[in-house]
Records
---
Amino acid sequence: MGWISPEKAKVQNYSISCNALILTKIVVVGTGSFGKNHVRVLNELGALGGAIDRNEETARKYGELYNVPWSSSVDGFDYSTIDGAIIATPTTTHAGIAKSLISKGINYLLVEKPFVATVDEAVGLADFGKDRDAKFMVGFIERFNQAVMLVKEYLEQNKVGRPIIMTALRIRRWPDRPIDLGVIKDAAIHDVDIARFVLKGDPISIYARAGSLTRSTNEDHATIIMSFEQDCWAILEANWITPSKSRKLTLTGFLGYVEADLVDQEVTLKNGEGSFTKFMEWKEPLVLELKHFIESISSRQKPTPDERDAIANLAIAEAALMSNKMNRALDFKDFLGNLRTQNLQDYL
């Protein structure tokens, strides 16, 4: 999802009615790139408590624009009125910032996907948070996309029967933001999460092919094939090469077929009863995601998706990278068994 200006956002009428949202205050750490969208939406929800960015000019800009406290460092901010934090900095900085915030008494953190860079680091951060009663939410925003939710609903309502194959396409030109991971952990991991979310489980086996055709030392294109229970397959394609942007999802079952455009949120169901396209009023997934985070804070509940989802998704991504390196399919349980991450069994 790209940048939406504050002017356009006001036109979209978010129908904010929950008083609990207004009472909760959240600080955003990292207000460039996608972080500026967190700042905008939190302000619309009445829940923006501050802005932190290592670029002092950027932090000041959003602090003055929205009349909230700001700082150019995590240590220089006053958290006395803050209920939660969003971390939207480059992935390799997430763990250090999260631990610092938890140590300062912030117990609700929304950490942008993929949470951290590796499974080892993810388990370490999860353990750190668990010991201090911190509650994590991870920014797998597609779970809050109406199109994804409707595909899942059709499957649960038996509109397509037992699933046979799910496909996901996520392509675009190279992102205009800092990239410290390859396309699998940075982009395809969204569709890994969708597969686990819609198909309700982890894969049995994983096979992937990936490579770099542009300027990156990491992979910039990848195809991942995962097998699930009952002979169901998921095929995920992602790249930073194709000039046009597209995010699509299909699900084929014994009784029907559903296709969804995740950008336009248009979903078409085809089965024995005919072809039906459901046109929904477009809703920004980030608004729904942040409302869930805010409501979780106000009700003192654990939000979802959480660190367990992040660890599972990262493990699948690392299995895909290993599969590509070895050029063979990997049994996911065997792969997990070969990881030497302490306490991994507590989360998977």
---
Amino acid sequence: MEEDFQQAKGQAGLDHTQVRRYRSWLRHSILAVAALAVQAVAAAVHRRDHPTPVLPTHADDLPPEDCGAIALTVPETHRLLLLHDEIRAQPASIAEQRIRYHLRWSTWRRKRQARARWYHYRKRLLILDW
């Protein structure tokens, strides 16, 4: 529960309000939680359709050429949704470049995270074999 509340504050702006009345606080809270739910559902749908991760089976395995990429997470969906606000007022050609840049950056980061996970799992196997 604490992690969910912390994520709602960070990803959906649950703590970005200064209200004086209960009704205002309630409206803001409902909108923030709804925004977090949309992000969580988008991440869950992507995770469901995402291929299973490539993980080592033995401590002496060599890393594969391509470990794949981790599935979208709630913070990653938040970053991609913020892209909409960033490009809204820009000309179409610049907006298209920014979208391509952010999607490449997201893919690069998720591939690096998958490679780091592969090495982490291999190290844990080494500790278990020891």
---
Amino acid sequence: MRTPFVAGNWKMNTTVAEAEKLVHEMLVPLNDITRVEKVLCPPFVSLSAVKNILQDSDVKVGAQNMYFETKGAYTGEISPLMLSELCEFVILGHSERRRYFGESDEMINKKMTAALKNGLKPILCVGERLEENESGKTEEVISRQLTGALAGIESTDNMVIAYEPVWAIGTGRAASGEQATATIKFIRDSVAKLWSRDLSQNLRILYGGSVTGDNIAEFISCPDIDGALVGGASLKAGEFVAIVNQTAAIKKNTTSKL
């Protein structure tokens, strides 16, 4: 069975002091929740501080982005070599990077390759815009993003995929469990074609997009959905803990019935 996975993407929020406070508020209850892989992704400036607080826990650290070169004259960028000392995971291909910073599938592919080469585990984000969804192009868009991001990469289980429909991110308008499941099944089938059926069945695929403690059960109850990439709700300690706790409870009950 795939281990459930819940990651909190804090985006461009929290100072170092605020990040430390938030982690301390979450730490004890998160440590008490087992059978779920838990990851916190603070801004770059807080990675070291968050790592130090979490060093004796099973909560892991992730970065929100990285550049594909290991060093050089790239002012303002962070390399995979730098991140490898600070975290285990890195979010790549997020729609906000695609939209606001012009990241192409080709660039995301370079980042994926560099992350894996330097021992980082990518959380690869894919998802369609509202107009693409309404015009029936969801699968076309997802297929292009997956093929582009994974081009030339040998099959690996050192990654996670997050389906984040752009129209649901930060809007309060989440997809339904049925919608998310259909697309995640398509993602799993696409990975099977690109790599292998066995690997696709072991690959963890998350839902992200206005995930809250009130709606997480709808997604986690779907066998094909292995967890969540949580945005705004991960900035509230109680809300994030509730999401992780429900994930653990529901997946445990689902497993026991198999």
---
Amino acid sequence: MKSAYRRVLIKLSGEALAGDKGFGISPTVISRLAGELREVHELGTELCVVIGGGNVIRGVAAASQGMDRASADYMGMMAGMINALALQDALEKLGVPTRVQSAISMAQVAEGFIRRRAVRHLEKGRVVIFGAGTGNPYFTTDTAAALRAVEIEADAIIKGTRVDGVYDADPEHHPGALRFTEISYLDVLKKDLKVMDMTAITLCRENKLPILVFNMNTRGNFRRLIMGENVGTTVLELSSSAR
């Protein structure tokens, strides 16, 4: 069976690693995620990952409680690196060759981000995990994911969430919410849908980079999506949105 995508970037939230605890790293959850990533890797898809640090600290939340925003964001980047190293460990325990690249210099634990080196790792069949966001405060890991995906010429960004796509309202609070199968970047911005932040959506739109949103908690969804099945919502350039 052949993958529908040559190279993809998957964006994972730090909170996803916490499981039901809501904080820290759940060994069960990170092992399951690593297993799903390995399945996709075995299909021949070149795979890279951007992961947040919200299970440890969220810069925006810390800033809202009085901490200096830049300092809080740097702490969030460090938290993202903790998660990147944890995911690397889980993948390598499954025999998947992995490299972590950091947007902030920390030579003892990870390579610095170098675009050409990242692409070469992917070409050699290694999973590349991009840590520490963009390396700059005031930018989210959503923006980091869009930036890295454009830089490495990925076919798509894949965003794993707790729901099975993009809805016209939060389906966890509005049972009658309607799911889109496809929606345009512009409609996401106009409707203020919480897919990714505005900077990330705009960057994807300018570079015609599709965003695939799916439920990462359903076992096998990632593999089905990579095989071309409709298991979520695709955000792309459309003349009109379709549900």
